[in-house]
Amino acid sequence: MLRKIVALKRVLYDAFGHFDADDGWAMASHLAITALMALFPFLIFATTLASFLGAQAFADTAVHLVFDTWPEQIAKPIAREVLNVLTVQRTDLLTYGVLLAAFFASNGIEALRTSLNRAYRVSETRGIIYRRVQSIAFVLIATAGFLVISVLLVFAPLLARLAEANFEWVKPYMGTITLWRYIIASIVIVGGLFAVHYWLPAGKRRFVSIIPGIIFTLIAWLIGSTIFAAYLDRFSSYVTTYAGLASIMVAVVFLYMVSAIFILGGELNAAISRYLEARARVG
């Protein structure tokens, strides 16, 4: 038992120490701002592509998938503005504007890559063209995934009624469409975390080795979001301090917290790997 406590202490000291020493707080700020700047271009590009393919209900679905897991005080005003932007009719799928939106959306992926490279303590050896193509591929895959989910959610009520009519045992498990949105959004987050930890950083990692950091990230996000939402409910002075900019400032602070936790997840994986390698050498 004592040995486990000592091991945990060493791993945490290594993870938090490296996070602080290697500009983790500054990287969290960079990641938060870049993510906010990439969010609108990604949703504009994805919605335009979906409209071109005939998926008119995509905008509402995409907004729910992105913002359903955010605290309501943060998500509601931003989601409303995002919907206002996305519901503007666009026919410029192949024009420079939408292609640039895809490029700017990929900047968010590049910020994730840079943060994870630092967290995992690896040097990037892949070419800039390969990295940018991979980032745009991530954007296209995310768009395709959101598109498939939006189509499924359109048919979800029909499929639910068919299932209930033919299979009695599924009735207790059939919730509202809102419940399914939460479930799907959670699955998207978990799948996205595995994808970025496994493929974005340089080098190779075993699938099992990235699980501790992802579990830490999910738990810390849940706790942090709950505390931040409670703070906004009771003690927040953002509205009086920032007036019309309150919503965007709250989003920036929230994304900063989320980004710091995300980077710490990578730091934790790296610290555990270093500890296990050190034990193996001693052994």
UniProtKB/TrEMBL annotation:
Membrane spanning residue stretches: 35-59, 93-112, 133-159, 179-200, 207-231, 243-264
EC number: 3.1.-.-
GO molecular function, a single term: hydrolase activity
UniProt enzyme class: hydrolase
Pfam families membership: Virul_fac_BrkB
Record carries keyword Amino-acid biosynthesis: no
Compartment(s) where it occurs, according to its Swiss-Prot or TrEMBL record: Cell membrane
UniProt keyword Transmembrane present: yes
Record keywords, A-Z: Cell membrane, Hydrolase, Membrane, Transmembrane, Transmembrane helix
Membrane topology: Multi-pass membrane protein
UniProt-recorded name of the protein: Ribonuclease BN
